[in-house]
Amino acid sequence: MTDVNDASSDDATPDKPTETDDLAQTQESEASKPVSDEPSETDAETDEDSDNALAAAKSEAEKYRDMALRAEAEMQNLRRRSERDVQNAHKFGAERLIQNLLPVVDSLEKAVEASQQAETAEDDPQLEGLKLCLKLFTDVLTKEGIEVVDPLGQPFDPNVHEALSMIENPDMEPNSVMAVIQKGYRLHERLVRPAMVMVSKAPAGA
């Protein structure tokens, strides 16, 4: 037979909270806390580090890009200089040889001039031979791009003429070439030898 006192004693004792109840209360408490939209200090530091790394990477990339552009420009300049040097070598490679041949041309011209002043110049086969040799030389020089500078009667130009003396001459404009002692020569617009000339000047007291 069940004791009435024992039954009433069991009903009066409250139920103890279980672990499941504690966990549920904790979750409800956490869920009830307001969620902050502001980033934490750790997130801010991470973003700042990322920005710094990105800026450093961009700066490094820009530096290497600038170096590459400079290297390319230098290579282009070097290529142009090399091409120009090769062109000049082809264009002016014969300059030294021509300089050595010019005295031969001068001698032939003087020989022809002297022979023409002789009494037998008209039928002189030697004169004809000299003229032929001189023509062969001048044709070769012309073919190689040589241009004769013969400035008789022209204004004196110190860039292509070399004055040996100045002589008073009332019949010519002052500072004009009145005589060419030795012709000058140019190779593709480059002066190989200046013309040796005599220059006129105004008479004293004029």
Summary tags:
3-stranded antiparallel beta sheet; elongated; Nucleotide Exchange Factor Grpe, Chain A, domain 2; 5 helices; 3-stranded mixed beta sheet; disordered N terminus; 3 domains; alpha+beta; 6 strands; 206 residues
Brief rundown of the structure:
By secondary structure, the protein is an alpha+beta fold. Helices cover 56% and strands 16% of the residues. The chain folds into 3 domains: 52-91; 93-144; 146-206, Roll (Nucleotide Exchange Factor Grpe, Chain A, domain 2), CATH 2.30.22.
Number of helices: 5
Gap between N and C termini: 169 Å
Report the strand count: 6
Q: Which stretches are low in confidence, meaning pLDDT under 50 for 5 or more residues running? A: 1-14
Give the fraction of residues assigned to helices. 55-70%
Give the CATH topology of the largest domain: Nucleotide Exchange Factor Grpe, Chain A, domain 2
Average residue-wise pLDDT: 80
Return the string of H and E elements.
HHHHHEEEEEE
Could you outline the blueprint of secondary structure elements for this entry?
Elements: H1 4-12, H2 19-32, H3 41-92, H4 95-116, H5 125-143, E1 146-149, E2 161-168, E3 177-182, E4 184-187, E5 190-193, E6 195-201
Parallel strand pairs: 2-6
Antiparallel strand pairs: 1-4, 3-6, 4-5
Helix pairs in contact: 4-5
